[in-house]
């Protein structure tokens, strides 16, 4: 069975729960392609726990925690995270999940600042050059401005959600 499961970075814990539910129904994830295409095999219904280790571009912080994960690594192709089916000590996984919450908050903050800075730079450029631009240039630049604004709001929403999770400790 092949499923496309879209999820924002701040909902990895919900994805883990969803994969556990699939396992209880007799479907085990065997491969992940392009971060969102999940391939499942039919198996005997089973209680299983999953752990997602997210790794931002060129960052080894979370990858270093993976050596403490005692489980079977699920094969991934062109994915920005690793997925493990947990066999061993769940206490250490809970500790790593807590560290992952703070890590994801930092990653979201970085993306939020990135898109916000580009939004501001493009806005300043548009304001300074509006009288020199053709209609097509204005439309083209306005579309980019809107995209950066939407991505800024999207990551701001995720950042607020992640802060609340970190404060309550819910993972």
Please sum up the structure shown.
By secondary structure, the chain is an alpha+beta fold.
Structure description:
This protein has four helices and six strands, in the order βαβββαββαα. With 171 residues, it is an alpha+beta fold. Strands 1-3-2-5-6-4 form a six-stranded mixed beta sheet. Strand 2 and strand 3 (37-42) form a beta hairpin. Helix 3 runs antiparallel to helix 4 (135-168).
Distance between the termini: 28 Å
Strand order of the largest sheet: 1-3-2-5-6-4
Structure annotation, total helices: 4
Order of helices and strands: EHEEEHEEHH
Strand content: 15-25%
How would a crystallographer describe the biggest sheet?
6 strands, mixed
Q: Outline, from the CA principal axes?
A: elongated
Radius of gyration based on Cα positions? 20 Å
Q: What number is the mean pLDDT? A: 89
Strand segment count: 6
Q: Could you list the spans in which at least 5 consecutive residues all have pLDDT below 50?
A: none
DSSP helix fraction: 40-55%
Structural class: alpha+beta
Descriptors:
171 residues; alpha+beta; 6-stranded mixed sheet; 4 helices; 6 strands
Task: Present the secondary structure layout.
Blueprint: E1 2-4, H1 12-24, E2 27-33, E3 37-42, E4 49-54, H2 61-65, E5 71-77, E6 81-86, H3 90-129, H4 135-168
Parallel strand pairs: 2-5
Antiparallel strand pairs: 1-3, 2-3, 4-6, 5-6
Helix pairs in contact: 3-4
């Amino acid at each position: 069975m092949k499923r496309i499961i879209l999820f924002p970075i701040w909902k990895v814990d919900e994805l883990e729960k969803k994969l556990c539910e699939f396992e209880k129904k007799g479907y085990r994830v065997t491969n992940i392609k392009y971060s969102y295409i999940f391939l499942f095999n039919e198996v005997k219904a089973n209680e299983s726990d999953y752990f997602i280790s997210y790794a931002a571009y060129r960052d080894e912080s979370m990858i270093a925690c993976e050596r403490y994960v005692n489980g079977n690594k699920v094969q991934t192709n062109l994915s920005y995270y690793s997925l493990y089916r947990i066999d061993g000590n769940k206490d250490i996984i809970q500790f790593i999940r807590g560290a992952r919450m703070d890590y994801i908050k930092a990653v979201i903050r970085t993306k939020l600042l990135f898109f916000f800075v580009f939004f501001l730079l493009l806005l300043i450029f548009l304001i300074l050059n509006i009288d020199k631009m053709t209609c097509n240039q204005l439309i083209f630049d306005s579309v980019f401005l809107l995209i950066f604004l939407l991505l800024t709001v999207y990551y701001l929403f995720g950042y607020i959600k992640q802060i609340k999770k970190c404060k309550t400790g819910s993972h």
